[in-house]
């Protein structure tokens, strides 16, 4: 009997892709203007489509082939494509059972949309991101084969590109009728099994010594934006009207917030863990700008408020307020007493403005990186 596989780590891109898969159908419904109830069979395990999706996502550290293959050959082929996308971030080279279905068969149409929709050139400086293939493919499916094809396509495409590739405006819209955290729990429980003491079933870093003092400071260019940490959200919920979270969160962190005023972003503070980093940073900044355009006072935070937070705060200032990228990035890091333990975030922010930043520390701080806030943890600890 084979030994059980190691539980999937949340930093692993397969976690990103598993969560994306379960968000796919509700996302598609939001983007094409379909009733939210149309997506329920894809997310509620009481329905066959959701069970098929969860079977395809089960034990992603395990074997390549489906643990329990459906008898129907089209369903089998579709679920195998889904599993391959979630496990590897690639699509199979062929799927004959799907290729030769009727034009209106939603599973076949989703395969054709996934594989025939051109992938955009990845050119962050000009606002072009490869992962927007996700939304392009589902719109292609909707135009060619209807609502069900769009929903099936979104499941496959979101499994291919991940939750970090989901457009946050659409996620905010769907959160009015669908609980985002429940989808995350369902996806990761299916992909790695239940772990009641781990996120997302349990809040992150709630015990000493990993609690940080609540921290928040005004954005230097927009005083109606606070730059802070997760413990500020937990301790001072009434200081803002809306929140953009750049780290793992739990409903208990902000029980007072309506879901549509709480934008939760899939972004890690670890090198190599963000496959869609340019898109994710840009979307987070755009979500912040949208909330501010509604007149809301917003908390932008990650776990410590020292790395992801200044990165997105900079992109917001550049894209929305017209600030220069490199001086602003240095200012934001100083403002929060932050660090450059993960310089990939600073490089990505600069690249969004067409600026190459091979050595962020030397370029931003030629006289030495300023000291970090004294309470900040060792670099390997992150929320």
How would you characterize this protein structure?
- By secondary structure, the protein is of the alpha/beta class.
- It folds into two domains: 13-192, no CATH class; 216-364, Protein-Tyrosine Phosphatase, Chain A, CATH 3.90.190.10.
- The protein contains 16 helices and five strands.
- Strands 1-2-5-3-4 form a five-stranded mixed β-sheet.
What is the element string, with H for helices and E for strands?
Answer: HHHHHHHHHHEEHEEHEHHHH
Radius of gyration over C-alpha positions, nearest whole angstrom: 21 Å
How many individual helices? 16
Helix content: 40-55%
Count of individual beta strands: 5
Shape: globular
Largest sheet: 5 strands, mixed
How many structural domains can be distinguished in the coordinates?
Answer: 2
Enumerate the strands of the largest sheet in spatial order, edge to edge or round the barrel: 1-2-5-3-4
Sheet-strand content, in percent, reads: 5-15%
- Poorly predicted sequence stretches spanning 5 or more consecutive residues: none
Task: State the separation between the terminal residues, measured CA to CA.
Answer: 36 Å
Content-based structural category: alpha/beta
Q: Specify the oligomeric state.
A: single chain
Overall average residue pLDDT: 95
